[in-house]
Design goal:
Length: about 650
């Protein structure tokens, strides 16, 4: 762990919204007088009816209930668009940069208003009403933003499914929330490669009964099949509607979106976020964490299929009247300079990306960075997984020319917005640490018995009280919500992450302590990969763990026991990787597969993952006690044939 400290640059201390003294003062008020603090913050957005009830939350076992601003009425799309029209109608809201560097678009707030209203009118014309679910399976094109905001405008609940997911994964998500309509494109385009989105939807819908409509955006003009009754083109429908669409009045606690995310057990769960608290929190964190000032060009490289894209490409920035950049491509296409070229092309001031991208670009050396200017850059951000100090230092020195602070932001799909982070004008930085809690956030570190640890310590990270961006429930399954997040430590939200607090009170996230792995910043449940593997006819048993991976952060390591009579082979290894890829999506592809004659189990039949993790990490000398295993000998074979030997 690095203990190097970077002071707040002097120009930052004077220009930023918050310096250290202000951070301490605001933080103290946020925890001592949360109702007063959040009542003031609620004023950052427009309310049709302002809230008087501020916080009404309980983490009590059996009675978890989270409500913020519950008597307030608002519309999220109005806040992200309409309220800006009088003062910034001609300001660019979205800069779109295509996969192909010759393609880009500038969309003003006025244009965004018109596009979103048309989109919303199309949805209304197909009988989409307040509370209906809409599945969005689109690449990173402006229509993805129009679709999400159109849902918000008419009170429909969007469920964006990352366009890298397979037809089966898509079908599961459509069925879980019973969407009546799916919005997709003919094809996606990433790194010059085409992704058959419409064909994936066609395959998915063979497993879904309730979908009446498929709206298709033309992106590549590929030849695709269109069902005469079910499918229609967006560009044709858009010609039939007007650019005026009245907003739906929404209660603060009316749902805004569902986003599926992986957990340690079972299928992905639908994380539900609501309107008022989410927007206040996304807007506030975007302003303070990125120190966003009027006129700044801000770029978050996430995909709208993940929560980072929801909160920090769309809702937070647009609520703040920002100019937000949306990028269709990938970091290394057409060259390893792409990110930096885009920064120079659009004069980006604030840049927010993931450690996995930083590590991959670091491997390509300094030259692709150094040949670009990047002089517009002022602030860098990191999100999605722990950033190793080496990558942090490179990001700071090479990308930021030692000039730009880095905000290492810790949060989760469930938290809606950033919870632990530096503020660039206030916080001294330590490479690898997410540093201090944001306003209103009360982290606690607990030992496995539930004792709250004080001072310097390492343990499991919980949050002692609610914040407005917190998820409200698992869609359709409140019991699972309570079970997943509130049962390990009574009365607290358990994050699933391990954490260290140092002598300065800084937080260092050490990674997941449950059966979730984080591959290139994407969350994957080991149980999902296992159930995919055991569905293969030649596999009898499978156990999946994470292992350290130089670029991805964690890689997927699968132990596979074959059916009697099936011989291990390289072909079968490839077949199994392809199987999981097809079943879940490329992000779930196992990196290493070890054919295991047996798995280490206790006498009661429970797989001892601790041992499998150690072997996958290439640390066979630290296996610990194996005497409780039903057959300790299986371990010797696993160690001998481990796939990650250095
Ligand atoms: O383990 C933590 C890791 O990513 C998990 C949340 O993943 P997801 O819901 O997909 O959201 C990702 C984008 C917010 C967390 O439980 N994580 C996220 N940010 C950081 C992090 N780990 C360390 N440092 C971070 N800055």
């Amino acid at each position: 762990m690095s203990e190097k400290i970077y002071d707040v640059p002097s120009e930052w201390a004077s220009r930023a919204f918050v310096d250290d003294a202000k951070y301490r003062e605001m933080y103290a008020r946020s925890v001592n007088d949360p109702n007063g603090f959040w009542a003031d913050q609620a004023k950052r957005i427009d309310w049709i009816k302002p809230p008087h009830k501020i916080e009404n939350c309980s983490f009590a076992p059996g009675n978890v209930s989270i409500k913020w601003f519950e008597d307030g009425v608002l519309n999220v799309a109005h806040n992200c668009i309409d309220r800006h029209l009088a003062t910034r109608g001609d300001q660019v809201a979205i800069i779109w940069e295509g996969d192909d560097p010759s393609q880009s678009r500038h969309i003003t707030y006025r244009e965004l208003h018109d596009e979103v209203c048309k989109f919303a009118n199309i949805l209304r014309s197909r009988n989409v009403e307040k509370g209906d679910r809409v599945t969005i399976y689109l690449p990173m094109i402006p229509e993805a933003a129009f679709a999400m905001l159109a849902c918000a405008r008419i009170g429909a609940i969007h469920s964006v499914v990352f366009a890298g997911f397979s037809p089966d994964s898509l079908a599961g998500r459509i069925n879980d929330c019973q969407s009546k309509i799916v919005i997709t494109a003919d094809e996606g385009l990433r790194g010059g490669k085409k992704v058959p989105l419409k064909a994936n939807v066609d395959a998915a819908l063979k497993k879904c009964d309730g979908v009446d409509w498929v709206m298709v955006v033309k992106r590549t003009s590929a030849a695709i099949e269109m069902d005469d009754v079910r499918d229609f083109w967006y560009h044709e429908a858009a010609e039939m509607v007007t650019t005026e669409c009245p907003i739906e009045h929404m209660h603060a606690e009316d749902p805004l979106f569902i986003l599926y995310t992986s957990g340690s057990t079972g299928q992905p769960k639908g994380v539900l976020h609501t309107s008022g608290g989410y927007l206040v929190f996304a807007s506030m964190t975007h302003q303070y964490v990125f120190d966003y000032h009027d006129g700044d060009i801000y770029w978050c490289t996430a995909d709208v299929g993940w929560v980072t894209g929801h909160s920090y490409i769309l809702y937070g920035p647009l609520a703040n009247g920002a100019t937000t950049l949306m990028f269709e491509g990938v970091p290394n296409y057409p060259t390893n300079s792409r990110f930096w070229d885009v920064i120079d092309k659009h004069k980006v001031n604030i840049f927010y990306t993931a450690p996995t991208a930083i590590r991959a670009l670091m491997q390509a050396g300094d030259e692709p960075v150094k040949k670009t200017s990047r002089k517009s850059l002022r602030l860098l951000g990191s999100v999605g997984e722990p950033i190793n100090p080496e990558a942090w230092e490179w990001y700071h020195r090479v990308v930021g020319d030692d000039r730009c602070p880095i905000v290492d932001t810790w949060w989760q799909t469930e938290t809606g917005g950033i919870l632990i982070t530096p503020l660039p004008g206030a916080t001294k930085l330590k490479p690898g640490s997410a540093t201090r809690p944001f306003f209103g956030v009360v982290p606690e570190i607990l030992d496995p018995e539930g004792v709250v640890l004080e001072g310097e310590c390492t343990g499991n990270l919980c949050l002692a009280r609610s914040w407005p961006g917190q998820m409200r429930t698992v869609y359709g399954d409140h019991e699972r919500f309570e079970q997943t997040y509130f049962s390990a430590y009574k009365g607290k939200y358990f994050t699933g992450d391990g954490c260290r607090r140092d002598a300065d009170g800084y937080y260092w996230i050490t990674g997941r302590v449950d059966d979730v792995i984080n591959v290139s910043g994407h969350r994957m449940g080991t149980a999902e990969v296992e159930s995919s593997l055991v569905a293969h006819p030649k596999v009898s048993e499978a156990a999946v763990v994470g292992y350290p991976h130089d670029i991805k952060g964690q890689g997927i390591y699968a132990y596979v026991t074959l059916m009697a009579g099936i011989e291990p082979s390289e072909e079968l290894r490839k077949e199994l990787v392809a199987w999981v890829r097809k079943d879940i999506g490329p992000i779930a592809s196992p990196d290493l597969i070890q054919f295991a004659p047996g798995l280490p189990k206790t006498r009661s039949g429970k797989i001892m993952r601790r041992i499998l993790r150690k072997i996958a990490e290439d640390e066979p000398s630290t296996l610990g006690d194996t005497s409780t295993l039903a057959d300790p000998a299986v371990v010797d074979d696993l160690v001998e044939h481990r796939q990650n030997k250095h």
